[in-house]
Amino acid sequence: MGTSCQTRVGFVGVGAMGAPMARNLLRAGHTVIAFDLSADRLKAVASDGAEAASDAPDVVGRADVVLTSLRSSEAFADVAWESFVPNAREGQLFIDLGTTAAPDTRAIAAALAERGAALVDAPVSGGPGGAASGTLHIFVGGAPAAVERAMPILEILGGRVTHCGPSGAGQVVKGVNQLAMGLTIAAYLEAIAFAVRAGVAPETVGRAVGGEEEWRRQVEGIAQAIAAGNGSGLTVKFPELRYFLKEADEKGFPLPLTHALLEFCDRGEHRFLDNMNRPEPSFWHELSTRPKGS
C-alpha cells in the first residue's frame, strides 16, 4: 500500500536537515505534525504550515507515518525506545532519516515489529542544500513491503533513493558513504601534514601535486583550504565513526583505518562544530601540532 497526499506525516527533529525536508512534504500536499526540543525550530516549521505537537508521543498518536531527523544514533535510540516502541500501533510506519548504528536499528525494528509496526532506515546524504532541493541520496533498509510504503515519501525528499537490503542495510551503506569521505579526507590531510611539518608550505603542495585527475584536484583543494587557514574545519566524520565500528564489532570483522582514525582524534580537543552542530576534534589541528609520540 502506498502513501497518498492525505497522509498524516509526523516529523521529529526539524533542525538544519529536518526542517527543509518537512517543508518539502508540506509542498507535496502532506499534513505534517512536527516536534522539536527547540521551540524556535518548531515555531519556524509551524509558520510554514506544519502542526505543532507537544512531544514525540503526541506525534506518534496523531501520525500515520513518523519520520525522524536527529543529530546522533544515541538521540534516535532514546526517542525510539522511550516514545515510539511503547506507543506504536498496528500498521504504523517509522522512517529514520538520520545516521544510526545498524545494530540499534535492527533491535528497534524488531521491537516495533512485535507491535505490528515497521521501521525503515533511510539515512540521507547531501547536507541542508540537498534537503532543501529534494536531491538527497537516501540509503534505504527494511522489509520490502515497508520500503514500498515509504518510497512515495522518500522520493519527495531525495533525488537518488536506493533500497539497499533488509533492516540496517541503509545504515551500512550510509557508512560506506561517510567512511569513503572521511577516510579520504583524512588521508589527504595526513599527506599534506607530512609536507608542512617537514617545512614545505601548503600552497606549494597544492601547486606541485594538483592537476586534472580527481585525486589531484582534491589534494589541491584541501591544500588551498589549509593555506587559507580553514584546515581545522575539515571534517573526517568523527562523530559517526563509532557507529560503523559497532557494526563491524557485532559482525566480527576489522576496520583498521577507521579504528586508527577514531583513536587518534579521540585524544584531541574539540575544535569546531560539524554540519549537524556536533563537536568534532580537528584532525588537521592534531596532525599539525601534536608532538611525536603523544
Question: Could you please describe the fold and organization of this structure?
Answer:
Helix 4 (73-84) packs parallel to helix 5. The strands form three sheets. A six-stranded parallel sheet has the order 3-2-1-4-5-6, with helices on both faces. A three-stranded mixed sheet has the order 7-8-9. It has two domains: 8-166, Rossmann fold; 173-289, N-(1-d-carboxylethyl)-l-norvaline Dehydrogenase, domain 2 (Orthogonal Bundle). The N and C termini lie far apart (57 Å). Helix content is 53%, strand content 16%. By secondary structure, the chain is α/β, with parallel strands linked by helices.
Just give the CATH class of the largest domain: Alpha Beta
Spatial strand order of the main sheet = 3-2-1-4-5-6
Number of strands: 11
| Regions with little confidence, pLDDT below 50 for 5+ residues | none
Strand content: 15-25%
Number of helices: 13
Classification by helices and strands: alpha/beta
* CATH topology description of the largest domain: Rossmann fold
Order of helices and strands: EHEHEHEHEHEEHEHEHHHHHEEH
Radius of gyration: 21 Å
Mean pLDDT: 96
Task: Tell me the number of structural domains.
Answer: 2
For this structure, what is the CATH homologous superfamily of the largest domain? NAD(P)-binding Rossmann-like Domain
The N- to C-terminal Cα distance equals 57 Å
Helix content: 40-55%
Largest sheet: 6 strands, parallel
CATH architecture of the largest domain: 3-Layer(aba) Sandwich
Overall 3D geometry?
Answer: elongated
